[in-house]
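[agent] plan:
  1. take the single chain provided in the ticket
  2. run structure prediction with default settings
  3. attach structure tokens to the ticket
  4. add a short note for the reviewer (M.T.)
[agent] executing step 1
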Amino acid sequence: MSAAKPNSQKTVRAVEWLNFFLADVQTGLGPFLAAYLAASGWSAGRVGYALTFGGLVTVATQTPAGAFVDATHRKRSLIAAALGILCVGAVFLVGRLSTFSVYVAQLLIGTSAAFLAPTLAAITLGIVGTKLFDKQFGRNQAFNSAGNVCAALLIAWIAHRFGYPAIFVVAALLCIPALVSLLCIDAAQIDYSRSRDGKEDPSAKAEGLRALLSDRRLLGFLVAAFLFHLANAAMLPQLGELLSRNNLKSAATFMSASIVVTQVVITFSAAFIGRRSHRGRKPLLLIGFGVLPVRAVLYTLTHAASVLLAIQILDGVANAIFVVVSVLVIADLTRGTGRFNLASGALATMVGVGAALSTTVGGQLIQYSGFSTSFLGLGVIAMIAFAILWIAVPETLGKERSPMPKNDTPSPELESLA
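[agent] step 2 finished; step 3 output follows
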């Protein structure tokens, strides 16, 4: 895709708005479910098992999903199908909850989640190429977080006014603007070869998974990412469970406010992080990993809502850095292999395994030792993740960028968006 296209800017904007509306949908289905189940009489252990099941479904499909995204030329259709599955999953959470409805919903939501993020990243890479990917991916995450903020504010009002089941109705309806944004993306703008960060020759055979796993830098980063999410994923849901035992409506308001704080931080920092990452990936990652154990300890010191919301700023810092820089690290390590999406799927698998096990580990620690012990235990895991990142993962960004493939020259319109 070397020639300039007149609708390049329109397509890039559509990608950004798709990130915004997908965040709306996923916010409605994710963080509030734990508090909803706890308020419906589910024990901490049962809540953990249900959330873990959804995470394991994602884990089971994530790496194959990445390989499929690498192979398919119809990436817009793939997102449309995932949106449909997500919408059906939301419908199963409306009304009276049963074990069957919750687990079917988690199955559908977990399956769709495995395809959405890697396909969006591939579409972005296919449109802007490697030269502009850092900055554009940062912008995508800023739109994603802005969507989370808007969704959290909307859901706080919906939960207060109509109750928790209405949240999932809204989540299903938000699939509509996401689909409209998807249809505004010009499929002709998505270059197949560079959407998988392929070699200069589009017909060249991509490297296999075994070749990728021989890279010790990649293995070290995958382990660190697993431990990061093993420590991180359960923290906010646990706060929701803790607060919902006394006042459900207050807990819903707090959860929304917490999401707003975190996502506002990401909204205003993601684009900067994307630009700053040109100077090095590892220093940013060390900051993101380093604030997590501090956050875990602080959660044990107070239950005052205003202080807990201030602590959520650290969550925003950690997540902003991880969601932007981790994908850039994968792009560094797979440049020229044609396996960007497969490696991204492997990363998402490790993230999913960590997040799924986090809710189970946290739930069991709460059940046997209480909330404070659970937070401290998760903090220890976060410290191990930091140590592995520091010792085992070198800087992945070289002193100079790899030369751009001939078919990776962005149009002047895309250059103006950088």
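[agent] step 4 note for reviewer: Residues 110 and 268 are 28 Å apart (CA to CA).
[agent] ticket updated
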